[in-house]
Amino acid sequence: MASVHQINTSEGGVPKLPRDTAVIDESGIVGDMQADQVHHGGPDQALCLYSLEVIEELQAEGHPISPGSAGENLTISGLDWGSLELGQRLSIGPEAIVEITWHATPCQKNAKWFVNGDILRMSHSRNPGYSRLYAKVLKGGSVKPGDPVELIV
């Protein structure tokens, strides 16, 4: 079963650091900030999601990436990341429902998490199934590590 592996927030920038619990509302994780609010945030990019298994694959390739370092709000384990599509909905925890809106464009601020600064390793156009995903919040709620994440069919 898929679940929330880690919740990550910051006062702006990366890495985002782990939290024990959080509340999700229409703007994302309450208390999370983005340093660049021109290119990040807003209703269609309220949450940034990433796969624990993708992070582990990247680590196995030698990249010094870890949960939260790429700026994702929720590190999720157990989903077939490469099969997720824009427009699909996920239930997160007991209440929250989100809709996948966009493949996140790699940011130069993530270069330190990749060998030779190769941020395109997490580019959807270059490496489908390895990008972070943005989501809009359809219904908010509380979330904690271990909470179930389910694809709504």
Structure description:
The structure is a single chain. 6% of the residues lie in helices and 33% in strands. The chain is mainly beta and 153 residues long. An eight-stranded mixed β-sheet has the order 2-1-6-5-9-8-7-11. It has a three-stranded antiparallel β-sheet with strand order 4-3-10, with no helix packed on it. Strand 1 (3-9) and strand 2 form a beta hairpin.
How does the SSE layout of this entry go?
Blueprint (H helix, E strand, L loop, with lengths): L2 E7 L7 E3 L2 E4 L2 E2 L17 E5 H9 L13 E4 L11 E4 L3 E8 L29 E7 L1 E3 L5 E4 L1
Parallel strand pairs: 5-6
Antiparallel strand pairs: 1-2, 1-6, 3-4, 3-10, 5-9, 7-8, 7-11, 8-9
A few lines on this structure:
By secondary structure, the chain is mostly beta strands. The protein has one helix at 52-60, and strands at residues 3-9, 17-19, 22-25, 28-29, 47-51, 74-77, 89-92, 96-103, 133-139, 141-143, 149-152. Strands 2-1-6-5-9-8-7-11 form an 8-stranded mixed sheet. Strands 4-3-10 form a 3-stranded antiparallel sheet, with no helix packed on it.
Distance between the termini: 15 Å
* The number of domains: 1
Residues in helices, as a percent range: under 10%
Which CATH class? Mainly Beta
- Helical/strand content category: mainly beta
CATH arch. level architecture: Beta Barrel
Query: Helix and strand string, N-terminal first?
Result: EEEEEHEEEEEE
Major β-sheet strand ordering: 2-1-6-5-9-8-7-11
The CATH topology is: M1 Pyruvate Kinase, Domain 3
